[in-house]
Amino acid sequence: MKIIADLHLHSKYSRAVSQKMEPETLGLWAQKKGIDLLGTSDWTHPLWLKELESLLKEKEDGVYQLKKDNSKTSFILSTEISSIYSQGGKTRRIHNVVMAPSFKTVNKINKELKSKGCNLMSDGRPIIGLSSIELGELVWSIDEDVLIIPAHIWTPWFSMFGSKSGFDSVEECFGKFSDKIYGIETGLSSDPAMNWQIKDLDKRSILSFSDAHSPAKLGREATVFQSQTKKSFSFNDLTMAIKKDKKSRWKISYTIEFHPEEGKYHYTGHRNCQVRQSPKETKKKGTICPVCGKPLTLGVMHRVEDLAESKEIKVMEKENQVGLVGYYNQKDPQRPPYVMLVPLLEVLSESLGVGPNSKKVQTEYERLISVLAPELEILTKTSLDKIKEIAGDRVAEAIEKMRKSKIVIEPGFDGVFGTVKIWKNEKVIKLNKNLNKQEQTTLF
């Protein structure tokens, strides 16, 4: 049994988030995407928490479902908290995903946060003045089963390893609680292969979630859990899988990844001056904008190379029956592999030659998930012959290229998302996942 989980997203009570991000709509879109388990998001916000408590019922220990919905979508109580504080003579801005096993625990945490002067009404993702260490102290004094997962750990401005306001190690950030950080979230601008270079993460699970601000963005990144013997899934099962507990009957099977080049902080740059630099270029040209003389925002790829200790990472490719390439750590085969996807709306947009929000693309999207399968199944499992039969040659060709990463991407930088092209004058660029510049090993 496999469970596709997306546990980091936001509600309508967070800033710059669609008003459609509410429980019933989330459940509906999870079915469209083929997601089994969602994070509720934003349980620190009083109004959102009230909605969650009225609309959800417990299905398994710590796992919930909608009371008035027959869907198979389940929910975990998760939220993102932004900590802004001073440590080591530097301002720190760290985002953490916090997952709780019950509403009882959630209410106790919220009460304690408010007692410390935290304004929980201001935003679904509250900004608090507590350090990551103090946050850990607070939540684990209430319930030791709470999980803290550092969010999008490479984002320059708001993350544990961020170049602007982060740290150089998990221990620097979490101090005495560093051993309780069992996993990290890659974020859109990094993939597992980049994180495999960081020795500090060797024993920690690498997780990927969407950080969706609108329903259509759900599942753009996700983590797939698998069990050979168990069909139920509880909060404890989630915890044991992330901990890599030997007694766990669940494990992380693989992660679903956004192409990191498409993330908005992959390369170094300055968006106002349209300056974009690879790590190699930055080493030659420096970190000052050649146009205006201001500091460039260091990209995730540059920051990873700064902290990398394991330079001998070699990624191995292996295709499944439908031509989807999985990427494996050849040096450490126990680490879960990952796959790289382009969202179906983007695939259809380029195939049909119109925007992803156009009526034509939206209509075709709804038709395909109705006739074929949920989105993630179409992208990863449905045969190309079946796709060709239902959607036509061009869509089938696009999905074939996407599955093999035979696409063209202009990397994102300084808050500007990268752009993906499946066809660009019919020129194909094979993305190189090997960070040590060696030739790629394949399993064909």
From TrEMBL:
Keyword ATP-binding attached: yes
Protein name, per record: DNA helicase UvrD
Species for this entry: Candidatus Beckwithbacteria bacterium CG10_big_fil_rev_8_21_14_0_10_34_10
An example Gene Ontology molecular-function term: helicase activity
CDD domains associated with the record: PfuEndoQ-like
Alphabetical keyword list: ATP-binding, Helicase, Hydrolase, Nucleotide-binding
Entries under Gene3D superfamilies matching the protein: Metal-dependent hydrolases
